[in-house]
Queue: 3 jobs
Job 1
Amino acid sequence: MKKEDTAAIRFQRERDELNNIVLKHAGKNLKRFYSLDSAVYRDGALPAKTKELLGFSTSLVLRCDDCILYHTIRCFEEGVTTEEFEEAVTIGLAVGGSITIPHIRRAMKNWQELLDHGLPGKGK
Amino acid sequence: MKKEDTAAIRFQRERDELNNIVLKHAGKNLKRFYSLDSAVYRDGALPAKTKELLGFSTSLVLRCDDCILYHTIRCFEEGVTTEEFEEAVTIGLAVGGSITIPHIRRAMKNWQELLDHGLPGKGK
Amino acid sequence: MKKEDTAAIRFQRERDELNNIVLKHAGKNLKRFYSLDSAVYRDGALPAKTKELLGFSTSLVLRCDDCILYHTIRCFEEGVTTEEFEEAVTIGLAVGGSITIPHIRRAMKNWQELLDHGLPGKGK
Amino acid sequence: MKKEDTAAIRFQRERDELNNIVLKHAGKNLKRFYSLDSAVYRDGALPAKTKELLGFSTSLVLRCDDCILYHTIRCFEEGVTTEEFEEAVTIGLAVGGSITIPHIRRAMKNWQELLDHGLPGKGK
Amino acid sequence: MKKEDTAAIRFQRERDELNNIVLKHAGKNLKRFYSLDSAVYRDGALPAKTKELLGFSTSLVLRCDDCILYHTIRCFEEGVTTEEFEEAVTIGLAVGGSITIPHIRRAMKNWQELLDHGLPGKGK
Amino acid sequence: MKKEDTAAIRFQRERDELNNIVLKHAGKNLKRFYSLDSAVYRDGALPAKTKELLGFSTSLVLRCDDCILYHTIRCFEEGVTTEEFEEAVTIGLAVGGSITIPHIRRAMKNWQELLDHGLPGKGK
């Protein structure tokens, strides 16, 4: 791990590495879940941007840092503004309570890194 | 309780009744939370419709039937279509797993009642 | 079920009935858990009253109505005042978020019943 | 609802009724999840009996009564004995804590009904 | 990070740093939640010490290490004794089950550090 | 920490170290829970292998990495095959949803390490 890497870069590298191990052992059903999990966020009646906000806020109230980071990156890619992101964070906080605050701290730090450094592999 | 009442009508009646008891005993901080909890869903950078979808999907993955019903009614009021509602349900299911299915069954039944009978106190 | 029974009375009757079925089938380890579960709330370095408040607030954030009702009754028995109860409720709400509100509504209704009718089997 | 119906019969009737509403509105992804959710419990490297015990114990620690009842019925169908069921219950209790006890009470009552009345539609 | 820092010191440093980022982007409602979250633990009908025990035990059963550490430090500040802390831990364990044990291990290690090194910035 | 240690070795070392601190401060009830927690996984009506699969899958849906790793090691010790492990993983994924995926990635990586390096202290 290079010291200067952002959380987003570190996450994507580790995620790819570990998904390779999962898929090496995965049976048919596990693979079907992975495929389904991509499909539900695609543009449909609701645009991908709204769907990523749903992915983000559900991950926040369930308090999974990796899931939160994944959807933080995707929200940024879909053009969510800082004001919109902050409102989604605040709904998650109201619904899920103060127990979500440590995750919100890390999410906001990662959002700041995306603002400062842009998307992994794309720059600002 | 009248037999023919919809789930939405029964819920709103009981909710009002019980909130009166809560507010009778509520101190300053509890009242502040109630007030904050209304404020976060108002139109802002994100429209109220999107915020209610966030309220709905977070309630679904946290599996609280009353919260799900509340936001189901609010989504309907904000003009969410059946196709949009179904996609929010499916994201909740993918994120939260099969453990959400009994809640999805009840949510879809309540959505159908809203389609059939309209909003409580407003008709179709 | 008699219509006029309080939630506390109905709960205790059903709880006794079902615990009899559990204990009929219970092995040694399940019985040990039941015994341990009573022991942890007894007076110790912390008084039983504080321990019941801990039992109540943990049940509230985990959102189990039966557990909440059990500890609501026990808090009342241990002389918790309405002001103290309301503060424990508010901490649960702040920690656990709005998803706890439906449970708070029911808890406050049950507290009101205890204030109005006293403990089950003891009267006011 | 007939008064004398077992919990298993009432559950299966309501489940079928509500699943019809869900499937009426379901898009492709929601249907794929339903299909996947059946597939994962079929005989494979692990026998269906073990898989139903996994379904039961995960539902117990996540505290979903309908899911618990569904897998209780399926465990009974797969020939799980009362001793085996009790041990799965006790593991769920140890892992998930006393917050699972109200669900265990209901699960054991339903198990007793299955012992007394047999499977819905099949008799003893 | 200096190697010899306690978990409490590292946590408070990181918490301050990240809260600065949160507050830079925070809207009115997010700030109101932060303010409310401080208010609920102040002396009232229940003393701050009891309230911190409630904050600790709810954080333990919801299994949030940062929240647990925050309230562990606050319990220590409020004069909670090791015997009292251990009883609050045990109630959390009974309510929340063995899934809390890894968090209990870390909480006890942090408590031991507080016993050995005193509060961050204050010494023993 | 030696760089080349597997996750299993690091976990067992840290677990032993921290359990010593817990047990130093543990009262009677906390010790009873630890003892009960070992007892429920022993051979009984269900074999230890099945019980460890139950411990694994409940830990997975409750999303506790340390608990998952503990039962991953125990499953490997009890002779669970990779195919059986993958099916237990997939049931956890279906029940608990995509929020479990980051834990599944880490579980599969640890399983791969066990396949490659054998049990801690025993070799391949």
Job 2
Amino acid sequence: MLKGIHEECGVFGIYSSGETDVAMQTYVGLYALQHRGQESCGIVVNDSGVFSYYKDLGLVHEVFNKDRLHQLGEGNIAIGHVRYSTTGNSNRSNAQPLVVRHVKGPMAIAHNGNLTNAYELRTEFELKGAIFHSTNDTEVISYAITEQRLVCSSIEEAVANTMKKIKGAYSLVVMSPQKLIAARDPVGFRPLSVGRLGDSYVVASETCAFDSIGAEFIRDVRPGEIIVIDENGMRSIETNLGDKPHLCVFEYVYFARPDSVIEGSSVHHARLKAGEYLWKEHPVEADVVIGVPDSGLDAALGFANASGIPYGVGFIKNRYVGRTFIQPNQTERTNSVKIKLNVIKETVKDKRVVLIDDSIVRGTTSQRIVNLIREAGAKEIHVRISCPPFINPCYFGTDIDSKENLIACRMTIPEICREIGADTLGYLSVESVNKLAENSDCYFCNGCFTGEYPAPVPKEIPKDKFEFKIKKTDR
Amino acid sequence: MLKGIHEECGVFGIYSSGETDVAMQTYVGLYALQHRGQESCGIVVNDSGVFSYYKDLGLVHEVFNKDRLHQLGEGNIAIGHVRYSTTGNSNRSNAQPLVVRHVKGPMAIAHNGNLTNAYELRTEFELKGAIFHSTNDTEVISYAITEQRLVCSSIEEAVANTMKKIKGAYSLVVMSPQKLIAARDPVGFRPLSVGRLGDSYVVASETCAFDSIGAEFIRDVRPGEIIVIDENGMRSIETNLGDKPHLCVFEYVYFARPDSVIEGSSVHHARLKAGEYLWKEHPVEADVVIGVPDSGLDAALGFANASGIPYGVGFIKNRYVGRTFIQPNQTERTNSVKIKLNVIKETVKDKRVVLIDDSIVRGTTSQRIVNLIREAGAKEIHVRISCPPFINPCYFGTDIDSKENLIACRMTIPEICREIGADTLGYLSVESVNKLAENSDCYFCNGCFTGEYPAPVPKEIPKDKFEFKIKKTDR
Amino acid sequence: MLKGIHEECGVFGIYSSGETDVAMQTYVGLYALQHRGQESCGIVVNDSGVFSYYKDLGLVHEVFNKDRLHQLGEGNIAIGHVRYSTTGNSNRSNAQPLVVRHVKGPMAIAHNGNLTNAYELRTEFELKGAIFHSTNDTEVISYAITEQRLVCSSIEEAVANTMKKIKGAYSLVVMSPQKLIAARDPVGFRPLSVGRLGDSYVVASETCAFDSIGAEFIRDVRPGEIIVIDENGMRSIETNLGDKPHLCVFEYVYFARPDSVIEGSSVHHARLKAGEYLWKEHPVEADVVIGVPDSGLDAALGFANASGIPYGVGFIKNRYVGRTFIQPNQTERTNSVKIKLNVIKETVKDKRVVLIDDSIVRGTTSQRIVNLIREAGAKEIHVRISCPPFINPCYFGTDIDSKENLIACRMTIPEICREIGADTLGYLSVESVNKLAENSDCYFCNGCFTGEYPAPVPKEIPKDKFEFKIKKTDR
Amino acid sequence: MLKGIHEECGVFGIYSSGETDVAMQTYVGLYALQHRGQESCGIVVNDSGVFSYYKDLGLVHEVFNKDRLHQLGEGNIAIGHVRYSTTGNSNRSNAQPLVVRHVKGPMAIAHNGNLTNAYELRTEFELKGAIFHSTNDTEVISYAITEQRLVCSSIEEAVANTMKKIKGAYSLVVMSPQKLIAARDPVGFRPLSVGRLGDSYVVASETCAFDSIGAEFIRDVRPGEIIVIDENGMRSIETNLGDKPHLCVFEYVYFARPDSVIEGSSVHHARLKAGEYLWKEHPVEADVVIGVPDSGLDAALGFANASGIPYGVGFIKNRYVGRTFIQPNQTERTNSVKIKLNVIKETVKDKRVVLIDDSIVRGTTSQRIVNLIREAGAKEIHVRISCPPFINPCYFGTDIDSKENLIACRMTIPEICREIGADTLGYLSVESVNKLAENSDCYFCNGCFTGEYPAPVPKEIPKDKFEFKIKKTDR
């Protein structure tokens, strides 16, 4: 709501040894992953090869009611997806999982990430007679797997061959009549973990989904690895395409839930560390440290702990947010941020305030927030941002505002400081960012800060090539 | 509601010389075709190659509200579809028109009919790597056109080549970025007509759609003919596959609206003739002739006119029918037919009644209706049916109940008469049916009566091959 | 849709000797009465003095789904209502039945009609401290009954005393914890009948509701009569206020369903008679007689039978009408009537046509219909209207357009004939109208034609006095 | 969701000097008060004496969309309400504001609180002929004001007289054609404040509503005070019924938003103090202090600050809560609390944890939460509750679980400690609670802890007397 950066998606899958209510478990799992995508969601249940699905625009609790869950029936495998759109317009036909039938039977796919050669692959398939119903990368992946499936003896072999062909970021969950398959791209841009719930196996974008259904974390899927779960249990296929993970740094800074653990490191802990490093890099004398809810709060606590400056609660965020909230027109008197975020004056009045946020995108929201604190009587406002300025596009599944809109592309840090009305402004350095995942063998994709990406980036894509305009529904 | 036979679909298309509200015209046209399919509907608008669409389960006035029509925007071409399902489950993903993108750009297809070689074609395409999102024939047709489009210089050539490949019944409307194309199968099983509205051209399953938007009928599309409408106006491509039309006789007897004209013959007139022939074949002494609403009314009037027996209004049908009406459980006292259909006792009390209906499927509804009239005091009840008994399956787009359920497969006419409680029972002969389209060069497909079809019928199809169970929404 | 006159409401009540699904029976009964009001509806179920209810804007099958009916639970008494608004705005708070609690317990009331002294009574009660939630007459009646209930030993006595106080038209159904009460105003403006279903008693505005649930008609409630149904069965209380019924003539001509029987006379038969009298009063040489659906059809058949001119089907009405249908903007080419009503050209082409309708309100619809037939090739068009011109307001529950809009207030009959484009025009005379209910002891309120009413009419009412504007919901 | 205690309502009113979008301002204000009631809401707009309203079950952003706000139109006065039900069932007819018409014109009322003599008053009015549509206290208040209005020269005088008659807790907003009136009961159980926005005056249950629309806080309405706002501005009427405020202590502890200021004291500050006092009363040696979101967080920070034990983030609460979320059935493995609340293991593993919550109702939720932390590896768990045990009913608008369910009525503190699985358990003392509103002249109603109430409490009320069962809608 308040940000200009967005995650693409969350994926979930479950394989149960018997017929159970896998639809309900997927529902609960998707609910825990809701923060990764609020635009649409879907669940596919596999009952001995018969696939039942439902997907639509809306939050998990809006799209699924008791009747709809019930209609999905029982089964022993299910996959689910929550989506925020990057490639492909926001409409019902882009909702995932994608359910298709090829010559070997039905297949369902849920995908988090962004392919960098989707355009080339799409054209290649079209020249062989393919037709596309959506503008999703997922449909491209479906064709790639299908093509391989015709010449491979198993779905997992088809997925393995497909991974040689598709480039970019992907954390995939694929369901065939007999198997649940999870695959992560060779760079490991997006998280993907495996867990266990009794005799069942579970895969999910984040470990918080395991906690919600009472499952136990086993391990992360490795970059370039394929996990196959079937009646013989779980086994791993190494494509040898992968290397050390280079996770999108925003997963730690912004996207993931603090209670998730990625590549062995707690997201909450990483954010505490971000606050600690911010203090080391940009110390300041102050009376209170406050964070912008929700993702700035942990770093604020880390900053407070490291600095000895008291931690305070500076804002209350209105929790009754709904997609249907009507924004009043702006007038000189109103500040739309106030509707979502109110200052606790008590905390900041007559104080020197350190204000921690996770990013500055266009600058307008930061300006409004600084202004709110100023109006509430703060004497000084020292803004600290728990990541470096981002100045480059992301090709791997994060939807950052266009370059013209990024304030850091247009201004120096002192200029930004002036623009947003702060007394001082400090960004976390790239060096510190690289140390966030403590005690982990995890590297980061820092491309949006540095322009250096851990995988080839595409030449300019004729974006409109993909589009056939599809209207949003008004639901 | 009261019948066990159903039409598959209705199609509509409009090509305007300028940007106009083609969405609204399609909306009104589909509303006029609503009787051909009440399960789902959709509209696609083409604005200089940008396709906007919306489709969902529901009646035309339920699916489209002002916002949704508005969101479709203006354009110069549009196509629409209303659907009742035969092949393919009842769900949103089977709603038409189908909108896809192939290598030459977007394409939208609306289809009325049933292919007899869909299974073979589907397998053929799957073996080349095709994936299917639905269980529609329309998706098979899309692949066929796309395959041809790769080697043909125009969409119309691709459609022409596709017509050599697909078998069975089809009245198609295809939209490319520049063109509106209408095509009818070589046998002409389903109706398809062309009209004009000022500078615009219109195609529709029935002429009543032209009347509703104020368009003028030009002519029927001929069996095997392709009509192409683009900036150069309208032209015809003859595939030379076609012959004299062999229209599904149920179009006259039951499906089409009486105000439509098909192959030069008024549907209302054909039904009057059916009544007239019924009288000639099965005369009876009686006091009043009544019809079962709505499709039996015209034949009843024809019977009355021919016989001199007074025409009467025997039933009132409750018009506030909705898909969401809750059927009460049957008890010995209730008769579910009563909720929809009430007898006007005045008309039948102490009378010898001739009761005209268009068909007897399972016999249970006929039995209930006869019973209603008997309870209302009729002295004699002489049932006359305006078509022959049907005892064979339809492969060309009519959804008739399965053979086990067809009363005429299990009983002789005297047995049926006894079963439904009538005093006498007479069916129209095949000979008379063949004369219904007076002054027209139209022949009929009488396969459901005679077992002789005007085109090859498929061997037994493994129906479940196509299915991946998809749940109905509860809307 | 096509008319400017509307009925106010329909009422239904059932008393069962045991706990049964009275909600479902009321649902089916209201569905049969839906033609009397399509704006809102409601059902109240009485389970041993606990009243459960649900009401909302919409048709019966829209407002009630399985869950809602189920939530109403079982009971032994229920009442229901369908409403079109006359007094009181169109909104949810005016939906009936009204459910209130007074000092003796809960009470529910459903009302069809219009009080002529509502304003005076309202003011009288307000001066005693009453507050009003709605602009319904029904709320006024509730106060009147409640006031009496404080001094009477029974609810029926309170209703009897109330009937001395309230003036105008009312057919009431009242439910107390123990009793179902039906009451009809002393003039009998609106119909109200009693029936039996096994051990249960049923009351309804029209007998077609009895047929729909399999109940048997007993008799009409007499003007000024109160029917009480409780554990001792059914009994009658005569207030001695009533006389011979003076039914609103529009009940026969337009509102009631043809399959209903009112005051011993079939509605269908009355309409056939109207056609017969029309022929006698305004004979004409012609080739075919057609009626405007639905209410003109019976009179057309009566005209045809009497005259010997063949009866024809001139129009097809689109049955998929929904409140949500979007009217396209009028252009010179379009004729909005065409969307709902299409001519069967075959029937009228080159013919001299007698066109029967039940009324002419503003004249615009008649003009369009005549024009449709003219365009379809009719040689002559002779319009016959099955009631006299109406030129006076109705104070008793029929919503006629305002006087300025009534064409008969502005023009002579020859002028109207010219205006609507007919060759000749004939209205039924008041004398003939008075003979419509053959073999019945029923008189008519003809006030809208003659200005002579069977009960005092109010002085001008300051209409806005009642209003507090309440917005329509957009459902 | 996780608690068994509920606030009743929130009220809002605005008086503008000119015609403005008072509907939108009320919408934003109610959105800020949403935490006070999530069951239903409503807005009434006054345009020169014409009242337009809409209300329904649902959250503010669910009930009001753009169309509905637009339909309310412009006006110069508006009031609004959010509701959680205590007296009166959960249904649409109990939604507020109540809009009625009495002899002097329309009146709208929004009410927060609970009358203790509602039953007597209701009976008194019923004996004078009153009818009730709902089971709301608000309807009783309407009758009381109306009765006075008949003999008083102004609405404010009528309200003043009414305040002598009604007993219990109430913060009222009343709108007449010309005036906006706010009134608070003589004890001041519930908060009510006045603010200013340019030339407009605003009243609201909490000051956070002022912040959301950019209004400025003026002062609290005093106990027993009436505020009248009309074209002459704002003036105060002192009924002399009131005394020092005795605010419901739960407003500080649980209900109110931390960013609100009540009786001069910041809610956030009061909660920090609660934590501080908890430390003083129940010190413990520990490694981390965590709070249960959301209302335990502030007290946890206060405890941490006072004790020097580090503050930690122990839980993540899933924010995508919706009324429609489907609870899975409990199994031995699942813990429904996990779906809403997940532990950050990092924070508690191998630590001695102080866990702060605001209350223990039944004990089951506390037990589950303690268990979650134990499973996450906490060595010791010391539960501290920021209010005393409650063991008495509330008669003034807080909906506490029934006495049988209150764990503190059944067990001693050591027993509760054992039951919930904590190592130690400490409740805040009543003495400390009384000091929460620092520097304020505010006293508290502590009846639920002490059994001593600042106003008379009613004898046992025959609860069912009021009820006529009204079914919930399934929306």
Job 3
Amino acid sequence: MSKLEEIANGVLAGNRRSIARAITITENTPEEAQKLIALIYPHTGKAHIIGLTGPGGAGKSTLTEKIVREYRRVGKTVGVIAVDPTSPFTGGAFLGDRIRMQELSTDEGVFIRSMATRNNPGGIAKATKDAVKILDAAGKDVIIVETVGAGQSEVEIIKVAQTIIVVHAPGLGDDIQAIKAGMMEIADIFVVNKADRENAEKTVMDIQAVLQLDTREKTWIPPIIKTVAVTGEGIPQLIEKIEEHRVFLQKGLLHKRSLEKAEAELIEAIKEQVTGSIIGKLKRERRFEKVLQQIVDREIDPASAAERLLNQELEKNSQNDEA
Amino acid sequence: MSKLEEIANGVLAGNRRSIARAITITENTPEEAQKLIALIYPHTGKAHIIGLTGPGGAGKSTLTEKIVREYRRVGKTVGVIAVDPTSPFTGGAFLGDRIRMQELSTDEGVFIRSMATRNNPGGIAKATKDAVKILDAAGKDVIIVETVGAGQSEVEIIKVAQTIIVVHAPGLGDDIQAIKAGMMEIADIFVVNKADRENAEKTVMDIQAVLQLDTREKTWIPPIIKTVAVTGEGIPQLIEKIEEHRVFLQKGLLHKRSLEKAEAELIEAIKEQVTGSIIGKLKRERRFEKVLQQIVDREIDPASAAERLLNQELEKNSQNDEA
């Protein structure tokens, strides 16, 4: 049995160390990750995947912690993936939150992992998707993916989820702009956390106002749930809505979304493999550098250069095949 | 003369309407954009491209406006591209700022354009790069690209610039985290705007502290400039630093950076074209949908499916070539 098969079997048995090692592989060695995912993929598709996002200061980590505890109370196993966009030289922010989460993870029914974005900011969406598959194959009933911010890459990451929760809180000021920008369209449930603050009602109304601008026809109207994560207030109601949304998906949309997700992942995989093979090969040839210099010298534009290189490549391929 | 050739000639002559039409093409019709860029590309490479980014509320728009006025004062022509991540249904935020900028654009030596991100969030980085090339070919001496936020996609956009300015302001609280996350590594110049506020010195020290954590060897230490954009205070000093950085680049780094940028653009173009041709073709075939269903049914994982499809494609190609 190869090392990867051993890890895959460990994952399928729900072994913590195997799960941790498997996720590390997805972060660091994309080629091994691909083989590993191929091994476990047949055992995925059972977990309900929840995405949780929103601006800094909204209380996402505490909310995640309370959601985990509530699911544990009703006997479900939970995996958590926190995507943390810390910089190479600032190190980890929000350490306190993470320590509190680590306490939770002494529970055998919970697996918590922060994804390191420092080494491959571009590959983080891919690694997160793989980590979700690993926790899914490991038998977790519920998987929560928590991201900070609302940039394009966060939207990309959070799309792995079936139920997307967008969290906001009163008094975050301009950040409502950030929510508007990217997250409003993809939210299945809104949470106004810190709802014991005096401006909570205004935050609820702000979200309602933006929702009313959305004139697309909808079969699911995103509810707005008020919570006070630190005291646990509103958490059972939130779980109820998550379950409602899960049932709603299963009644119809789930298959459509699964197909869309499969298509997105397949196209991404095709792009990656083409990049890996064609570009890797081109880079080892002298003409690649020559073309770069031509682009810098404005003798040819990048798109035309790409076209020329690809055509040369196709010609060579057919010659090789004939030989 | 084709319509595109006409537009290209108009761009090269610096005609405003042609420039506007050309940028619209980059936003909406990627295939036409590629042809257009090929036509104007030989005339690019002369402008100095400045990137300006930072969290909401830092005063980026006012700062951009003042930089434009200062460059105009010394007789340089300027192009501005504002990348505005407004949502499909919220419409344009910061309308007041934009109106103020429009006043500026009655000046023949200034061209200002907001890029619409609503239709293709993924394509915005590409469209912005193309718009920069258009303004460059149109003869603008200085081009400013202004983006909001600090997500991965904003980092991607701002990389088009030769001199990157990261703007911050006192009292934005947690947003320093956002700057730390993605922008610190790429900043050539820091600006602490609203420097007349009482906490300005603390903001400067925060940035210094983060800078000191960066132990990489550097030939350019990013300076921190204090400005009060609304009164114009500090703007001449900022322009001076931008010019210093431009000269610094020309003494050595510029060629290296040009090669890196050419490589990034070439690889991106190869990926796009492969996607456009191979994936476009695959999607029209029945087996594509069959494979999607197999992925959903967990019979095969996306990466293995991609491998299989690509191999089939290569085999078919060689058969076609032999026939």
